[in-house]
Amino acid sequence: MKNLNNLVEDDLRMIWHPAAQMKEYNEDFPPVPVVSGHGCYLQTADGREIIDIVSSWWCNLLGHCNADITEALCAQAHTLEHVIFANMTHPWAVELARELLKILPRGLTHFNFGDNGSSSVEMALKMAFQYQYQTGNRRKIKFACLSEGYHGETIGALSVGSMDLYARMFRPMMMNNLHIEAPDCFRCPYGCDRCTCSVPCIEKARKAFAEHGEELCALIVEPLLQGAAGMRMYPASYLKALRQLCDEYGVLLIADEIATGFGRTGTMFACQQAGITPDLMTLSKAITGGYMPMSVVCATENVYRAFYADYKEGKAFVHSHTYAGNPLACSCALAVLKVLRRDHILEKASENATWLNDRFVDEFGNFAEVGEIRHLGLINAVELVADKNTKKPFESGLRIGYKLYKEALHNGLLLRNIGDIFYFNPPLNIEREDLDKALGIAVKSLKKILWSQRV
Ligand SMILES: Cc1ncc(COP(=O)(O)O)c(C=O)c1O
To answer: Of all helices (H) and strands (E), which one includes residue 291?
Structure first.
């Protein structure tokens, strides 16, 4: 174990944390030193246990220090840690491609590797652009995306995201894309109910395609779940209708399954609930169980063929990342897929999903400030509001969600908020006992924050 003396002080002196106001870290809320992890638990340097109910930014799929993945990683490290992926290949990448082929929506047959979610989004955007160019559609140069969408934080990915928080500052640097109003099932402007909805909101997309379809090269969406927007969930029929629109206007559909892939929404991939195959799909996060950075852009035969030509035609996709196809990451991904299959993880998670949602309704349903409890797979989100009847949000300066996050962390639960929304997105193999424990802490913390708010 490294010397833990002055860990936090030295961190604050030198390290710039992601998405953070460092002044707040320094003056109010220093980082928590974590020294080990096991299952859904993290151990801190001062001996406390914290339940990681958000799977460390949604990537930890099968618990921390999972025995099977650790074993695969260690064995791989003794065999081949990395090799250039240009003109070289290796058994672990090929085996991973074989395995992906078995579980992906039918038709996604070619895999281009990268090392993080944002870079795979960049890659998919460039592929779509070049595809249109090389298939004679040179006017198709614009991207469409959904409002409130999030696809990462590099410039291209930010440009197809619609979250002001991340994008505002960088607008002058960004591409001019078409932002289509996304479904808002909690505050539905059409007055629809989640259960009976016939997706009238698709009209917005229809209108946008009718006006701009000829110049659109691709539409990128987070299928079924707009995670960073606050776990906003929309019906599979909307996604299916988007697929039809793309077909009608010769627009490629990019499904960003970085957050939703590998069982998070109840099926292996969210697209499968809509029965669709996108032209391009991006994967990352859970693919290695949270062990190694890795991403994959999956493409159809049709897309792949548009790049396949004699060298002199200059149609190759000239894009590379140093860690493409990293063997350590491939071995972790293979171990993840093995465990998912061997231990029937999705089936068990789906039994727990129904149970967990019932527990959420029991525990949080009666709070005056709970506007909605929504769920998809094991993901359960609670949106807190100032007025339940009008769904009026809390004044943002009150930072209710952030206060809840701090209180829960103090009580041993990592319940990272998105504005005034809190959620569980646990490892798929979490035990009910641990979910119960997490619920207990969440309820206790919520009561404290809301009561202090009321007085
Ligand atoms: C849907 C989606 N796309 C892309 C990304 C970006 O991935 P990364 O953080 O690995 O760049 C994220 C990250 O949360 C995401 O949720």
So the answer is: none
Q: Whose CA is nearest to atom 5 of ligand 1?
A: 152
Q: How many CB atoms lie within 10 A of CB 254?
A: 28
Distance of CA 118 from the midpoint of ligand 1 (Å): 6
Q: Are residues 218 and 244 in the same domain?
A: yes
Does 15 fall in a domain? no
The domain boundary, picked from 277, 311, 342, lies at 342
pTM over 0.70: yes
116 touches ligand 1 (CB under 6 Å):
yes
Beta strands in 90-224 (DSSP E): 108-114, 142-146, 178-180, 216-221
- Ligand 1 in contact with 118 (CB < 6 A)? yes
69 close to ligand 1 (CB < 6 Angstrom): no
Count of CB atoms within 10 A of residue 150's CB?
26
Same domain? 304 vs 419? no
314 and 411, same domain (yes or no)? no
Evaluate whether residue 53 is within a structural domain: yes
User: 284, 313, 342 — which closes off a domain?
Assistant: 342
Containing structural domain, residue 282: 70-342
Q: Which is nearest to 253 in space by CA: 207, 212, 303, 196?
A: 303
User: Is residue 379 located within the same domain as residue 317?
Assistant: no
pLDDT tens digit at each of 455 positions of the chain: 567 889 999 999 999 999 999 999 999 999 999 999 999 999 999 999 999 999 999 999 999 999 999 999 999 999 999 999 999 999 999 999 999 999 999 999 999 999 999 999 999 999 999 999 999 999 999 999 999 999 999 999 999 998 788 888 999 999 999 999 999 999 999 999 988 899 999 999 999 999 999 999 999 999 999 999 999 999 999 999 999 999 999 999 999 999 999 999 999 999 999 999 999 999 999 999 999 999 999 999 999 999 999 999 999 999 999 999 999 999 999 999 999 999 999 999 999 999 999 999 999 999 999 999 999 999 999 999 999 999 999 999 999 999 999 999 999 999 999 999 999 999 999 999 999 999 999 999 999 999 998 76
Which residue's CA is the closest to the ligand 1 atom numbered 10?
A: 117
Same-domain check for residues 337 and 400: no
Please check whether residue 24 lies inside any domain of the structure: no
Q: How far, in whole angstroms, is CA 151 from its chain's centroid?
A: 8
Tell me which DSSP letter residue 47 carries: S
Alpha carbon of 259 to ligand 1 centroid (Å): 7
- Residue 187 shares a structural domain with residue 264: yes
Residues 149 and 226 in one domain: yes
Q: Are residues 413 and 281 in the same domain?
A: no
DSSP state letters, 77-117: HTT-S----SS---HHHHHHHHHHHHHSPTTEEEEEEESSH
